[in-house]
Design a protein that fits this description.
Layout lengths: L5 H36 L5 H16 L16 H14 L2 H26 L5 H11 L2 H4 L6 H16 L3 H14 L5 H9 L7 H23 L6 H6 L9 H11 L1 H26 L7 H20 L9 H19 L4 H20 L16 H15 L4 E2 L5 H7 L3 E2 L8 H11 L2 H10 L13 E7 L7 E2 L7 E7 L3
Parallel strand pairs: 1-2, 1-3
Antiparallel strand pairs: 3-5, 4-5
């Protein structure tokens, strides 16, 4: 056996130090690129993103968990995203700038956590940057900026890092943060726990961490707002009619309205699913066992997609993001493993995919005027223009929304009401949902709303209605997925 020399020991101590010295350079580079990406997309955030931004503004400037100050609501799907955006708004003075800060920090965290997970599992560290690049340039993820999916990507990277390094405490904290980001993201730590028995040895650590992080908010929400889970579960499934399309079949619909970006988003997801299957088979043959955490993340994405398909929820494009994010992570891990033996093919394939996504993003506009994958009736610019005009007419009086409320409410900064902003509409939605529900879902909804106290909807003085076809140029709206229509502002009938 060769005895290590002083020179060998110096080199072995120097390598980790050299790797650590590269982290600030890596983080700075990712931050600069991510800031440029946010500038590219900042004018194209979808309507639901502005619901979140309106919540953040109300919390930051008025201390209210609401879209309309003084009217508490519980329709913010992601409590953690709202809290982070509100904190950013206090510092930066604008929810949009706060969204940019959250996006940049999330992308830096994603690159660093994937890099560390790669090191812990014997995969080349460049996989971290490659994975963050593929995820961060995906047309699907960029169509969700302002929503919670960039934050979810960073937390999934942290979850992977915790599993790869067998960090039980960190696993619990990240699991709690995922549940605070979206309740349905609990699927990922559950799948990991089923596939990683080693974590059960320190079960009290991750359980304590998860409860300490997530339980306070959900206890407060259940007792104060009367619902454990945000009202969006009810809103998004109540009388949802997408022409018979649901998550399981919605890819066809999205492909019809946005074929190129949907294909670009689907390619890494499909390839990642194939890699999940291949790496499971390889593990049975004794190869690539250290990469098992990456496989579990991919399985979590598949399980999330299956769960949403079984629930038959409408195919909002961000519902596909967890699948795309997680399977892309698995894909990059598989590419790293193959590249350690056959360097050219996986590197070339990954570079080609990344280049295609970047070229599309730049060709879509500088900056974007609309998200490439979205189903809103109008663009952000349309609704922003109309929201300012509505403010001049209605003042402090209330107006019923036409069905899409986020951008209008943000730029009007007035009392635009519907089920997202006025909890008086929740009682009717809940009664109808309970009437349609089976025994299990009925019991779950009744438990969730056990402490809910119904209130009357706020009376409105005006109504915004959507009418097909063009109208007054100022009130006309259109998008890449919908033909021109126009909004009509009229007095409410008494």
């Amino acid at each position: 056996m060769q005895v290590p020399t002083a020179e060998h020991e110096a080199i072995s101590h120097e390598a980790p130090a050299r790797r650590r010295s590269r982290l600030p350079v890596l983080a700075g580079g990712v931050a600069v690129v991510s800031a440029g990406v946010f500038w590219l997309v900042h004018d194209a955030m979808v309507d639901d993103a502005y619901i979140t931004l309106t919540y953040a503004r109300s919390l930051a400037f008025h201390g209210d968990w609401a879209m309309i100050p003084g009217m508490p609501a519980n329709s913010a799907t992601s409590p953690l995203n709202v809290l982070l955006l509100a904190a950013g708004t206090l510092v930066l003075g604008s929810p949009v700038r706060a969204a940019g800060a959250v996006f940049v920090i999330a992308m830096v965290a994603l690159a660093l956590t994937l890099r560390r997970a790669a090191q812990d599992t014997g995969i080349p560290p460049w996989v971290g940057v490659a994975g963050a690049g593929l995820i961060g340039s995906s047309p699907l993820l960029l169509s969700t900026v302002g929503l919670e999916m960039p934050l979810a990507a960073a937390l999934l990277g942290a979850l992977l890092m915790a599993v790869a390094g067998r960090r039980a405490w960190l696993f619990g904290v990240v699991a709690g943060l995922l549940v605070l980001t979206r309740v349905d993201l609990a699927v990922f730590p559950l799948v990991v726990l089923l596939g990683c028995p080693a974590l059960w040895r320190g079960w009290w650590k991750w359980l304590t961490g998860a409860i300490a992080v997530a339980a306070p908010w959900y206890a407060f929400s259940w007792l104060h707002f009367g619902s454990l889970i945000p009202d969006t579960l009810l809103i998004k499934t109540w009388r949802a009619d997408w022409g018979g399309y649901y998550v399981a079949t919605g890819f066809e619909l999205l492909h019809q309205v946005a074929p190129v970006p949907v294909v670009l988003a689907a390619v890494p997801a499909v390839a990642g699913v194939l890699c999940v299957i291949g790496m499971i088979l390889a593990r049975q043959l004794g190869w690539g066992r250290r990469a098992w955490p990456w496989v579990l993340l991919g399985l979590g994405g598949i399980a999330h997609y299956v769960a949403y398909s079984l629930l038959k929820v409408p195919p909002y494009h961000w519902y596909y993001a967890p699948l795309v994010i997680a399977t892309t992570m698995t894909l990059t891990a598989a590419g790293g493993l193959v590249a350690s033996r056959v360097q050219v093919l996986p590197v070339a394939a990954g570079a080609a995919l990344l280049a295609a996504q970047v070229v599309f993003a730049l060709a879509w506009g500088l900056p974007w005027q609309a998200a490439p994958i979205m189903t809103n009736w109008g663009t952000t610019a349309d609704y922003a223009r109309i929201g300012g005009a509505v403010k001049q007419v209605v003042g402090d009086r209330a107006v019923a929304s036409p069905g899409e409320i986020g951008v209008l409410a943000y730029f009007c900064d007035c009392a635009i009401v519907d089920q997202f902003s006025d909890r008086g509409h929740v009682a009717r939605s809940l009664a109808d949902r309970l009437e349609q529900a089976g025994p299990l879902s009925r019991n779950l909804f009744e438990f969730n709303y056990r402490h809910f106290v119904p209130t009357e909807p706020r009376p409105v003085d005006f109504v915004l209605r959507r009418v097909m076809g063009p109208g007054d140029p100022f009130w006309t709206i259109s998008s890449t997925t919908h033909p021109p229509s126009h909004l009509v502002l009229e007095p409410a009938s008494r």
